[in-house]
Input
Amino acid sequence: MTEPGPTSARLVLDGDQIARACARMAHQILEANRGAEGLVVLGIPTRGVALAERLARAMSEVEGVEIPVGALDVTLYRDDLRRHPTRAVGRSRLPVSVDDAVVVLVDDVLFSGRTVRAALDALGDLGRPRAVRLAVLVDRGHRELPIRADHVGKNLPTRADERVRVRLREVDGVNDVTISSEEATSGATAPPAEEKGER
Amino acid sequence: MRHLLSAADLSLAATTEILDLAEEMAQVQARPVKKLPALRGRTVVNLFFEDSTRTRSSFELAGKWLSADVINVSAKGSSVSKGESLRDTVLTVAAMGVDALVIRHSASGAPGQAAQWTDAHVLNAGDGTHEHPTQALLDAFTLRRHFRRTEPDRETFAGKVVVIAGDVTHSRVARSNLLLLRTLGAEVVLVAPPTLMPAGVESWPAATSNDLDEVLPEADAVMMLRVQRERMSGGYFPTAREYTVGYGLTRDRLTLLKPGAAICHPGPMNRGLEISADAADAANSLILDQVAAGVAVRMSVLYQLLGGEDAPTPIRGEA
Amino acid sequence: MPAPAPHPTSGGPAEVLVVGADLLGQGRADLLLRDGRFADPATAGPAAERLDADGLVALPGLVDLHTHLREPGREDAETVATGTAAAARGGFTAVLAMANTNPVTDTAEAAEHVAELGRREGSAQVVPVGAVSKELGGVELAELGLMARSSAGVRVFSDDGRCVHDARLMRRALEYVRAFDGVIAQHAQDPRLAGPEACCHEGELSGRLGLPGWPAVAESTIVARDVQLAQLTRSRVHICHVSTAETVDVLRWAKARGVDVTAEVAPHHLLLTTAAITGYDPTFKVNPPLRPDEHVAALCDALSDGTIDAVATDHAPHARHDKEHAFGDAASGMLGLETALGVVLETMLLPGRFGWREVAERMSVVPAHIARLAGQGRPLAVGEPANLTLVDPAARRVVDRSASASLSRNNPWHGRELPDPVVATFWGGRATYRR
Output
């Protein structure tokens, strides 16, 4: 049920809460991996990259070793390319080979799971990781594919028509996570898929 | 983007997007699995009325690495000689259900005419002496990398001087490059003997000169055009020897170039005629980089044409 | 419905009384058509068909010095029957059929064959043009004298499609036809300056589009040569489809010196420019090619002051598959018979450069004289052959290429609004076209 009138955004996480969630996830990743060996952190553009860099930095500080971090653009592996005007493709940046690595995929919001599916396909064409883990800042439910995150910053039950928005300082100048109900009048025709939390 | 018929079709934004994506595509070439699924299920036909193994293979790889189905139709035996019109040939091929036609033809304007007759996306792979837009894109891609490497702090093309030298009249590469380089903000100087300068060149957005020596010291890049020996029988220049002395990038002329100036050639080269072996193999020669760029740039273009939903068919005038 | 092919003594009403037509814009009068000639209107019988010509202008039947009927050889593109039906729709009562058929009209037999086709099936008088050289090869003279003596009575000779390039051959031809008052009609195109691949006026557009250029001097240098040869040989020369300002200058110079030269211009060169070619549409590919504005202006001025003597259509039908090629590969030529008068009204009459007298001169009287066609281009007077074109000066329409008597559809005027003047055409007193 959408409310009439202007959107009403509710704050879910503020900057401090985001930072604590990232710190916790960094420790969890290291714990699950029993250390930093073999870890490669790849963020899914756009905000997943910023998060990946935060996680990698945190883990590097804890372990005292440089943990490789990069970006994995999955636009060309999406399953809905033909349903939209041609999408712009983002940059991929692989710091090292993914063969035999423990790849930690990082994204801001986990929603339908389709983006992660695309990321797994992309990874498969790049090499053969030993294992793939998924770390997300927000899991908002409504999976359309059998995908689950290994490390979650915040579990957030939502209605499908609600909109989850993550903002990070590196990209947006501020840090917060908000949820809003809105009528479909925002003119949001094209992607910024991450703002819609379409995963 | 519906068609790519001319370099003039590309704005600065569109060109930048294509070149940026080509950088991403170039990474694919370096991978063990040289495939992206983006054009899966799409069909591309290389409809070549004029021979060109190199360009055709480049387009074929580009399509296949994007998971499209690609077939090659060599149409040179058909159309005019067998009485089948160009329109019939295009319609017959398109009727098989193709998404994109990559057309190379010896007559200027043919891909543009074909675009009027079919709903498929049309990509001009070289038409007569008119245009060769993907060549201009791969030349721009190569030069952009070079300029970013040599002068990383400067805006890449602004104020750069690119000399295009050779048979400008008959060169589709020259026309497309001129248009695209201007879009990118570079200055272009055309150099040729008067007989090989096109009619109306005074109105083109380029400086012109008949004196290569005078122009070379200013060049940030020199693009040598292939000259065909058949032009001698047309009386455009007396002998190959005289052409080389006046307009060839000889070993001596290399000393006139600024340090860091790039040497380009769209290929195939007539070594010893318009370009000396020394120039072709010089340290600042980008010729091999141009060849390597071809597939990545064409992948980028194919994605721009075919990677999204098909736009509703524009309302056409009468057939 | 095309009118039945008339023979001057068969079919149709015996008398037609045209009432109240404006004769060449000089004043209204009645015209009586009887037994193939004009008769005194006062003697019209009660059974005479009355044609109300109030508001219509009467012109002598138009004469086209330059038509391609394509028969024999390319009956898929046009035949004598369909081409002359188109001619009649355009107000023409006589057409000169160019020789570049297959086989070429280079013998008396070939000429007589074409003339016979015209008699049997034509909706207008068909006068064969004879080739200047055997097979249009440009090397040896064709049998000009035998063609002249034949029942076809050939007086105009042309290798049109090709230029008589060899100066000596042109000289010989000019000299030779003097004996029987013939005229050589030259397609002026120096093949060394504008070869067979040349298809676009050499200039800014050809350079930009990458189309092989056809420079103006390829036409004017041949004309300059030929007017001097005509003077030397004291013979007549006619220049086909003048397309450039440079040629107009040469014609002025030659006429001032008393050279017996005449010239024609095609309707498309009076109105269409190189702007039509920017989309590479082969409909606008023609030889000589369309030229930029300044040439079109010079041609209109020349037609106005008489430097150019006549309008000739260069009607060039082509089968669809011959046009549906890349521009450089497509056949050259445009349809013209049905739209010629409309274009002349649009470019010359309506802007006030011409009156109806000039229309009649340039499209009937002078062409008939150049072709030495007795019986055509005559005054609308009692006793003269009844070749008559009735036109409505106010009628206009948007040209529809599929509404045509021609077999072909390569019509450059399609979609354009033009005067559509011809209401009725009478050839030898019989109606060959009625709207």
In short: Residues 7-131+294-306 of chain B form a domain with the Rossmann fold fold (CATH 3.40.50.1370). The beta strands of chain B are 43-48, 69-74, 100-105, 121-127, 161-165, 187-191, 207-209, 221-224, 262-264.
